[in-house]
Amino acid sequence: MSIKKEYCIRRIDKIESYLAEKIQKVSDGYIKHFGASDTKNISHLFFFKNPPWSKKEFLNIILDARTIIPYGT
């Protein structure tokens, strides 16, 4: 398994947990507790059997995270 693509999201507000929750729902699996020891999330590292950019649901999560109003407002 290797990293094929990164999606950078630059925001002032903290949305890591929110984003992890959304991505977990569309991923094919995760590494339990990876990067999530300080949150209630099961993980912050997910994997996909097929390129995630081929899934409309995944792209919508990324686009929303880049463009919606700050989370929690």
Give the overall pLDDT as a whole number: 87
Characterize the largest beta sheet: strand count, sense, and whether it forms a barrel: 2 strands, antiparallel
Task: Identify the quaternary structure here.
Answer: single chain
Overall structural class, as computed from helix and strand content, comes to: mainly alpha
> What is the molecular shape?
globular
**Spans where pLDDT lies below 50 across 5 or more residues:** none
Tell me the count of domains. Answer: 1
Summarize the helices and strands and which ones pair or pack:
Elements: H1 16-26, E1 29-30, E2 46-47, H2 56-67
Antiparallel strand pairs: 1-2
How would you describe the overall organization of this protein?
By secondary structure, the chain is mostly helical. The protein has one domain (16-67). Helix content is 32%, strand content 5%. A two-stranded antiparallel sheet has the order 1-2. α1 packs antiparallel against α2.
Quick structural gist:
With 73 residues, the protein is mostly helical.
List the defining traits of the structure above.
mainly alpha; globular
